[in-house]
Design goal:
The complex is a heterodimer of chains A (about 100) and B (about 140). By secondary structure, chain A is an all-alpha fold. Chain A has helices at about 10-25, 45-60, 65-70, 75-85. Chain A has one domain: Non-ribosomal Peptide Synthetase Peptidyl Carrier Protein, Chain A. Chain A is built from four helices and no strands. By secondary structure, chain B is an alpha+beta fold. Chain B has a single domain, classed as Thiol Ester Dehydrase, Chain A (Roll), CATH 3.10.129. In chain B, strands 1-2-4-5-6-3 form a six-stranded antiparallel beta sheet, covered by helices on one side. The chains are: A mainly alpha (about 100), B alpha+beta (about 140). The interface of A and B includes residues 49, 51, 55 and 64 of A.
C-alpha cells in the first residue's frame, strides 16, 4: 500500500492518466487505496495490459511476481517508484 | 530452430478447412513466422479472406509459438484461446491464391495470459497488424 508521505506527484499523474486513458477509470475513483478489481473495474484480462502500459510509460521492467502483488493503485505507485529508484533512466513524467 | 522443420499441425489441433497456416517459416524463442495459402473455404467463402481470417491466422501462429515453447520445456500442450485483440488495423483482405505470412512475437507474459504482436503480410505488403491476447490454462496435474 502506498504511503501518502512518500507520494510522487509525477508518477501518480502518469499512472492515473494510464488508468483513465487505457482502462476508462473515473478520475474521482483514483485513490491510492482503490482496489484495481473491485473499485476500479479492472479484470484478470487487464493485468497484462496494465503491466505493459506501465513498462512503456516508465521504461522499466516489472517482474511477473511483482505484478502479482499489485492489488491497489497505491501498490502501483510504490512499485513504479521502487523500479525507477533502481534504474538509471527515470521517466520524465510526460511521455505516457 | 526448434520446431521449424515440423508442420504447424505438430503444435496445434486445427485441421483443414479451418487451418490457416501450412508452414512454419521461422521459429525463435519468442517469435514465429508461419505461412498459409489462402483457399476458398470457411475463411474465404467468396475468394477473399475475411478480416477475421487474418486474425485467425495470426492466432494460429501464436498457438504454434505457445506449443513450441511448452515442448522446449518438456511440458505437455495445454488448452489455449484467443481472448482479445487490440489496435487491429486491416488494410485489405487476402485473396485466394495468395500466400500470407503470419508473424507473431511475444510482448509480455503474465500467466495465464500472454500478449503478442502480430503482422499478416503478403510479400512486402502488410495486410493487417495488431495485438493479440491469449489465455492458456494453467498446468494440470
Amino acid at each position: 500500500m502506498a504511503g501518502s508521505e512518500s507520494a510522487d506527484p509525477g508518477i501518480e499523474a502518469v499512472v492515473n492518466r494510464i488508468m483513465i486513458d487505457e482502462f476508462e477509470c473515473a478520475e474521482a475513483a483514483l485513490k491510492p487505496e482503490a482496489l484495481l478489481n473491485d473499485d476500479l473495474g479492472l479484470d484478470s484480462l487487464d493485468g497484462v495490459d496494465l503491466v505493459v502500459a506501465l513498462e512503456k510509460a516508465f521504461r522499466c521492467r516489472i517482474a511477473e511476481e511483482e505484478a502479482r502483488g499489485i492489488k491497489t493503485l497505491g501498490d502501483i505507485y510504490v512499485k513504479v517508484r521502487s523500479r525507477l529508484a533502481g534504474a538509471a533512466a527515470p521517466a520524465d513524467g510526460g511521455g505516457a | 530452430m526448434s520446431g521449424a522443420a515440423e508442420p504447424p499441425e505438430a503444435f496445434i489441433p486445427h485441421r483443414p478447412p479451418i487451418l490457416c497456416v501450412d508452414e512454419i517459416v521461422e521459429m525463435e524463442e519468442e517469435r514465429v513466422v508461419c505461412a498459409g495459402l489462402v483457399q476458398a473455404g470457411p475463411h474465404a467463402p467468396a475468394g477473399e479472406m475475411w478480416e477475421e481470417g487474418l486474425i485467425e491466422g495470426l492466432a494460429q501462429a501464436a498457438a504454434v509459438l505457445h506449443g513450441a515453447q511448452r515442448r522446449r520445456r518438456d511440458l505437455p500442450p495445454v488448452l489455449g484461446m484467443l481472448v482479445g485483440i487490440r489496435g487491429f488495423a486491416v488494410r485489405r483482405r487476402a485473396r485466394a491464391g495468395e500466400r500470407v505470412r503470419y508473424a507473431v512475437e511475444l510482448v509480455r507474459r503474465l500467466a495465464p495470459f500472454t500478449l503478442l504482436s502480430g503482422v499478416a503480410s503478403v510479400g512486402e505488403e502488410v495486410l493487417a497488424r495488431g495485438e493479440l491476447k491469449f489465455y492458456q490454462r494453467e498446468e494440470e496435474g
